């Protein structure tokens, strides 16, 4: 017998359709994230660090810390420490702006760009392996549903 909302199977309760969808999202996110972590591990980069590097690759003029934080996929309460680790590895650089000395701009370095170039294909390959079987139309529909869900919550 298939478990439906509100029914019991093996002592587990399934709540509302919203709760069921939420739990499926969490399970899927965890599974997909573990696959990406495996790819990033080869370059000794966390998923959060990878996210920051991708953000900075898209902003060659650099960004202040607060702007990086607002663009991140997952919120990291200590972006400064995250940037410190990336700077120590010479994947990013930070410098004070001459116009406004309070602003520290963060830029990706040539070494950071090289690291991302090495990761581009393996990351895309992992995404294809994990989600490619859904096909373009279903992926597009899934993306639209997820965007709509976030828009309602935000």
From TrEMBL:
GO biological-process terms attached to the record: response to stress
SUPFAM superfamilies: Winged helix' DNA-binding domain
GO molecular function, one term: DNA-binding transcription factor activity
Domain HTH marR-type residue range list: 18-151
InterPro entries reported in the protein's UniProt record: HTH_MarR-typ, MarR/SlyA-like, WH-like_DNA-bd_sf, WH_DNA-bd_sf
Pfam families: MarR
Name of the protein in its database record: Putative transcriptional regulator, MarR family
Taxonomic source organism: Candidatus Sulfotelmatobacter kueseliae
